[in-house]
Amino acid sequence: MTTRWLVTGAGGMLGRDVLAELAADPGTSATGLTRSELDIADQGAVHTAVAGRHVVVNCAAWTDVDAAERAEEAATAVNGTGVRHLARACAGSGSVLLHVSTDYVFSGEAGAPYAEGAPTAPVNAYGRSKLAGERAVAELLPGTGYTVRTAWLYGAHGRSFVRTMLELACRRRTLDVVADQHGQPTWSRALAGQLAALGRAALTGRAPAGVYHGTAAGRTTWYGLAHETFRLSGLDPERIRPVGAAAFPRPAARPAFGVLGHGRWPGAGVPPQHRWEQQLSAALGTPAFAELAAAARAAG
User: Fold this and answer.
1) Where is the RmlD-like substrate binding domain (predicted)?
2) Whose CB has fewer CB within 10 Å in the chain, the N or C terminal residue?
């Protein structure tokens, strides 16, 4: 039987990679809807789009962290209320929901990786809006709702830290990069594969519902990520200079520690992701990043 999937936010970095992953499976029929095609804050439109789907992957989100600080109600309309609409529609149609969330639901004060069941305590409006969506999934889909928290995403499509570093390398001799915030750089293609595997496991009853952490193994800082990006791209990593987060004041506070644990994947029969260094090396070998690295090397 062909399984019918819906991917919301299909024009974004992760949404495009999820669609590419699903397209490789002949047993899957996937429909992607961009933000202009489906506003998840529109309850009626959501119910129409979800009807008849076996799995819904929600990649739609308000992702501008600083703008959320100034417009929390608008951010929550998407990240909270919009997700509630999706969860309610999935409950009515019997669909599995895979909802993508964030490490920003945590305070960032831990000294060890956050387990999936660790207490949440967001420090900014964006984190609060995303936590509202998580709670909607847990409340309305206790047996068929999956929240997958991720962090520090980069990929071939759209803006990301890795892309920005390579673009800046063309214009600046040295780059100051924050060295006191810790996290897990995660390739969107790797997360897309994990989401597809989780959805299939959910359909066969092998994956318990609830929260999973979809980030790369290991940990580093923004400085460490920039340093490794330069090294793997054939650029001089000594051009990267470590600074504290205080050097770049932002409207929204950022958690200083966003490292996530991956304890639930074995129970779902889905492998955890590889280390962030392996993912970065593979990503930088793809055309989108290889061309940027070549331009940075040519610029000297």
Assistant:
1) 5-284
2) N
pLDDT at 300 over 90: no
65 part of a folded domain: yes
CATH number at residue 188: 3.40.50.720
Specify the pairing of strand 175-178 against strand 240-243: parallel
Do the domain assignments include residue 249?
no
* Residue 20 lies in domain: 3-158+184-217+260-274
Q: What is the pLDDT of residues 39-93, one digit of tens each?
A: 999 999 999 999 999 999 999 999 999 999 999 999 999 999 999 999 999 999 9
pLDDT in tens, 97-126: 999 999 999 999 998 999 999 999 999 999
Domains of the chain: total: 1
Q: Which of 126, 146, 154, 212 is catalytic?
A: 126
In a domain? residue 38 = yes
Computed from CA positions of residues 3, 17, 127, 150, in that sequence, does the dihedral angle turn out positive or negative? positive
**Cα distances (angstroms) measured from residue 268 to each of 59, 265, 283, 298:** 21, 5, 26, 46
Would residue 123 count as lying in a domain? yes
- Of the chain, the percentage scoring pLDDT greater than 70 comes to 100
Tokens at 134, concatenated = 């998580």
126 is catalytic: yes
